[in-house]
Amino acid sequence: MSTRSNTDTNVHSRPPMPRHFLTGEELTAPELTALIDRARELKAAPLSSGVLAKRSVALIFQKPSTRTRVSFETGIYELGGHPMVLRSEELQLSRGESVRDTAYVLSRHVAAIAIRTGPDQLVEELARHATVPVINMLTAGHHPCQALADLMTLAEAFERPLSALTLAYVGDGNNVARSLAILGALAGVSVRVASPPGFQLEPVAGAQLTDDPREAAAGADAIYTDVWVSMSDDPETAEQRRRALARYRVDDALLDLAHPGAVALHCLPAHPGEEITPDVLYGERQRIWDQAENRRHAQKALLELLIHPA
After folding, report:
1. Are the beta carbons of 298 and 148 closer than 8 angstroms?
2. Which residues of 102-134 are buried (b: 16+ CB within 10 A; e: fewer)?
3. Neighbouring residues of 255: CB distance < 8 A, sequence distance ≥ 6
4. Which residues contact 95 (CB under 8 A, 6 or more apart)?
5. SS3 state of residue 51
6. Which phi and psi (to 5°) does residue 130 adopt?
7. Mean pLDDT computed over 90-115
8. Residue 220 contacts by C-beta under 8 Å, 6 or more apart in sequence?
9. Where on the phi/psi map is residue 204: left (φ > 0), alpha (ψ -120 to 50), or beta?
10. Other CB atoms within 10 A of residue 37 CB
11. Confidence of residue 14 (pLDDT cuts 50, 70, 90)
């Protein structure tokens, strides 16, 4: 007589492990190149793929969102699918249900799970127990979907291959800087990260670290920044951050140090007058609004890669 319980049979009899996208390190260099090429094809023909026809993707938002929510919802719809938006307060997760149980339940209903949250450990646990692909829409440690859109934007902006480009990130060495370093290295982009002491990114293979924004910007093809102050910062912390990061502002003078034709990039939301001047944010030397649109196209290509046809 078998000693296996119903729990062993029903919960632990798992299909083959799905592919997840948590940091970007899950991709190979050829896959990343193909993904960016495919994203550009999907931008040219937004309704050309029906990979998600009659299927749903769960989008869990535990943090406020504009670009992430809009780009994922619209992209899933354009792929023929249903974006199932789940806010934190609407889930039993907020009342103590485990991440593991949530992964088990959602995996029975949707083709993929994407989550925007804080702790990276939560996303890792969700992926450990899910039987469908899990996508990190944003965590404290990583923002890989943004980096995909950034690389796509660079590919559009320059005739040269990505491996011939240099990107300078100036400001807080945060999750955006980390994802640019990881995926930029995979694409062959030379990534420089300039941050003041106390805000520096840990060493990431391939990234050049400095505390001098002018050194990072010299001869670069793109200069990238992010906000200095987040909504969760108290007034005293916010002011300390502004003082520490003041010389890392992206303005015309910093862009003048870059390669002729260099562009400014920003993942948004922006605080004009702090990390970037209004003249650059809304001027002709930026591709920031292209970045915001390209989130949708890059994420559609990612969904095609991760989700097999039904």
Report:
1. yes
2. bbbebbeebbbbbbbbeebebbbbbbebbebbb
3. 217, 223, 262, 264, 280, 285
4. none
5. coil
6. -75, 150
7. 92
8. 166, 167, 168, 192, 258, 259, 262
9. beta
10. 13
11. low
How many residues are given for the chain?
A: 310
Q: What is the pLDDT of residues 132-175, one digit of tens each?
A: 999 999 999 999 999 999 999 999 999 899 999 999 999 999 99
> Is residue 162 within 8 Å of residue 188, measured between CB atoms?
yes
Strand, coil or helix: what is 24?
coil
- This prediction has a pTM of 0.93
Report the candidate in 285, 19, 306, 266 with the shortest Cα–Cα distance to residue 143: 266
Q: Which letter does DSSP use for residue 207 in this model?
A: E
Percent of the chain with pLDDT over 70: 94
Could you give the strand order of the β-sheet that contains 82-87, starting from the edge strand earlier in sequence? 82-87, 56-61, 112-116, 134-138
Number of CB atoms found within 10 A of residue 34's CB = 14
**Which residue in 47, 282, 291 sits closest to 155, CA to CA?**
291
Q: Which residues are catalytic?
A: 116, 143, 146, 226, 267, 295
